[in-house]
Design brief:
It catalyses: ATP + H2O = ADP + phosphate + H(+). By secondary structure, the chain is an alpha/beta fold. It has three domains: 1-50 and 148-303 and 390-405 and 413-460, P-loop containing nucleotide triphosphate hydrolases (Rossmann fold, 3-Layer(aba) Sandwich); 51-146, Elongation Factor Tu (Ef-tu), domain 3; 468-667, Rossmann fold (3-Layer(aba) Sandwich). It is built from 25 helices and 22 strands. The strands form five sheets. Strands 9-10-8-11-12-7-13 form a seven-stranded parallel beta sheet, with helices on both faces. Strand 21, helix 23 (633-639) and strand 22 (643-651) form a beta-alpha-beta unit. 45% of the residues are buried.
Length: 674
């Protein structure tokens, strides 16, 4: 009996410490979530009250019922004038008003003067929109506020911090480790922690308790079976990718760092293939955005052609090529559901909703892989499911509460979790200044926080995107020389269907800085430009320099390229800038006629994408040497790692040289005069 007492007191102390940590975890994140949703609502309130430029409001819209796509009804909203470019995009919510009534719909697509929106069949929104269309009513629309992410994040936070048993080592890792990072490891990542220090920290052999928990071996297969499956990967994957997959199969919690062009999503799909071959599924695969989730889905379908893969999410937010693999698409092809829907259309008394719910449950229950956004994984259809693996791609762009959603919707935490991202690229997008704080806010992802706490990172070390001369600087400066080239210079030859002047440019180098001395940065209201409250910047001189570069790189139409050669098109050019104001200006100057399919975007929105040619406009040009948020070296890293063949940065050298990272990059580049 005497020996038992200390043990009992020890268990009680551990339990009390854990519950105290759970309470602290909730108190840490809940106010940040509240501040973020409040900031979003306040921004929209200001936009709606100040919207003289009709950036978030559309008036006098003619509504028409168009067609049905699976379980969604499609309506068109016809405007008399062109829609604003920066609002009302695919997947956005829109509030549709008629007199005192209001319903919410989801945007499916858009044309220059027309929105296509969807509402679920049988919903109140669909019923009202049907009546408006039947009576030829004119409606008006406003950009909507999506509170679903907030609601599901709060629910996940409550589950993890209150309702999870102490026995879950994964939850102990998430909850208890926050104290370690709060005490001494949170830093101002933009300035105080240099790129080299951040990139090299994973080299330290910090085998603390958090790494021990994360690195615990989960023995769910025989080693010889795993060796056989992994051996099959060697022709398709490099050593670091194979090593990472082996670790992820073994560990309870794995962080995978994938620098630009290293094939993070490619590796993730092969990891899922191995999981399925070892019969240790099912898998929940997620990403933060619908675009990233669809990209992950395509990779999984290509790598695992025989697997049962279901895309969870409304078809309005999913790319059309994946509709048939969505839950709604699979329901549409089910014979029972199709018959029941025909019966309903004929007026027969059929409980269609109940049947669809049962069939949907059967489809999802039989799936090998369910793919969803992090927020979408909180849907009721899978709330009671248990997954052996949860894999989150682009995890460093997702806030910690949103990352909790796929971990915590079920009655138990998944056996094994994998976060894939790159903490040397841009962090989650956060609106609230309280939530953004790098010392305590949502600006630090779960991936980064756990890594700062001491959890080891598996590094993908070979890039296959950039010409070696483009990759040399980010490799040395941001990744401590650990990133190697998987492509040779001869693998990134210049296109043949360019002008002689452009071909000469390619022959001189692949990465250039173009100094625009006479440029002046100008302030512009973003409430009119981009649907965001505040101001942005533009630079007309830099925009004119970019226009000249686009003209220089215009493909030749005469003659034909050889069959073995890739034909260069204007869509192979990407133009990016840190500032919304400059993006709007460039769009107005360039994106017309043959250049209408050219991608012009902010740096933050372009993360994860690539093009053969990237043109960057830095914008900042002032007498005081202020560079604003360009001082965040992660934004520079993203900017200069998007190009496969050619990178040209246009900027004011004198201003940019005031930042240590920009100074280092500019000094390493040949100059281009246009």
């Amino acid at each position: 009996m005497k020996k038992g007492r200390p043990q009992g007191r020890g268990r009680s102390a551990k339990r009390q410490a854990f519950h105290s940590a759970m309470e602290a975890y909730n108190k840490h994140f809940r106010p940040l979530l509240d501040a973020e949703v409040a900031a979003e609502q306040e921004q929209m309130r200001q936009l709606r009250s100040e919207d003289s430029g009709n950036m978030v409001k559309l008036h006098g819209l003619a509504i028409r019922r168009e067609k049905r796509i699976f379980a969604e009804v499609v309506y068109s909203l016809q405007s008399r004038k062109a829609l604003p470019q920066s609002r009302f995009g695919k997947g956005d919510l829109v509030d549709i008003h008629y007199e005192t009534e209001s319903v919410q719909a989801l945007i499916l697509s858009r044309q220059s003067r027309k929105l296509f929106v969807t509402a679920s069949i049988g919903s109140e929104a669909a019923d009202r929109l049907d009546s408006y269309a039947a009576l030829a009513k004119c409606v008006h629309a406003e950009a909507g506020i999506n509170t679903l992410s907030y609601e599901r994040a709060v629910k996940a936070l409550d589950f993890v911090s209150k309702g999870t048993p102490l026995s879950s080592d994964t939850v102990r890792l998430l909850i208890m480790s926050i104290a370690a990072t709060q005490d001494h490891l949170y830093l101002d990542l933009q300035t105080k922690l240099s790129a080299t220090e951040l990139a090299s920290r994973h080299l330290s052999d910090n085998k603390n308790m958090w790494e021990q928990i994360a690195g615990e071996t989960v023995g769910r297969f025989r080693d010889e079976d795993a060796n056989l499956v992994i051996r099959q990967l060697k022709p398709r994957l490099n050593r670091s990718q194979i090593r990472t997959i082996r670790k992820a199969l073994q560990r309870r919690f794995t962080l995978v760092q994938g620098p630009p062009g290293t094939g993070k999503t490619f590796m993730a799909s092969h990891l899922i293939s191995c999981i399925l071959q070892l019969n240790i599924g099912p898998v929940l695969a997620c990403a933060g955005t619908n675009v990233a989730t669809d990209n992950l889905m395509r990779n999984i379908l290509k790598t695992c052609p025989k697997a049962k893969v279901v895309r969870l999410g409304r078809v309005s937010a999913v790319q059309e090529d994946l509709w048939n693999m969505s839950l709604d698409g699979l329901l549409e092809r089910n014979k029972q559901v199709r018959k029941a829907r025909r019966d309903v259309e004929q007026g027969l008394n059929v409980n269609l909703r109940a049947l669809e719910k049962v069939v949907a449950h059967d489809i999802l229950r039989s799936a090998d892989v369910i793919v969803a956004t992090c927020v979408g994984s909180g849907r009721d259809e899978i709330k009671d499911f248990k997954f052996s693996f949860v894999i989150i791609d682009e995890a460093t762009q997702v806030t910690e509460p949103d990352t909790l959603i796929p971990f915590s919707f079920s009655n138990d935490i998944a056996s094994q979790c994998v976060l894939i991202g790159d903490h040397c690229q841009l962090p989650p997008t956060v609106l609230s200044t309280t939530s953004l704080s790098n010392t305590e806010g949502l600006g630090i992802s779960m991936f980064l926080r756990l890594w700062l706490a001491g959890v080891g990172v598996q590094l993908l070390d070979t890039q296959y995107r950039m010409h070696p001369s483009i990759a040399s600087f980010p490799c040395a400066h941001f990744y401590s020389g650990l990133l190697r080239d998987g492509v040779r210079s001869e693998d990134r030859v210049a296109p043949k269907n360019l002008s002689d002047e452009a071909i000469r440019l390619f022959s001189k180098g692949r990465s250039f800085f173009c100094n625009v001395e006479n440029g002046v940065e100008e302030s512009v209201s973003t409430s009119r430009e981009s649907g965001k409250v505040g101001t942005s910047l533009l630079n007309h001189s830099e925009a004119q320099a970019v226009v000249k570069l686009v003209a220089l790189l215009e493909p030749r139409t005469e003659g034909k390229a050889l069959v073995s050669e890739k034909t260069f098109r204007t869509s192979d050019i990407g133009i990016i800038s840190p500032y919304e104001g400059q993006v709007r200006l460039l769009h107005d100057m360039i994106a017309q006629g043959e250049n209408s399919d050219m991608k012009i975007s902010t740096v933050d929105s372009f993360q994860g994408q690539e093009r053969d040619v990237i043109l960057v406009s830095a914008v900042r040009s002032n007498m005081t040497g202020q560079v604003g948020f360009l001082k965040d070296w992660r934004r520079l890293n993203v900017s200069i790692t998007r190009a496969r063949l050619l990178l040209v940065v246009v900027g004011n050298e004198e201003t940019l040289m005031n930042d240590v990272h920009w100074k280092a990059w500019i000094r390493a580049q040949p100059r281009l005069v246009i």
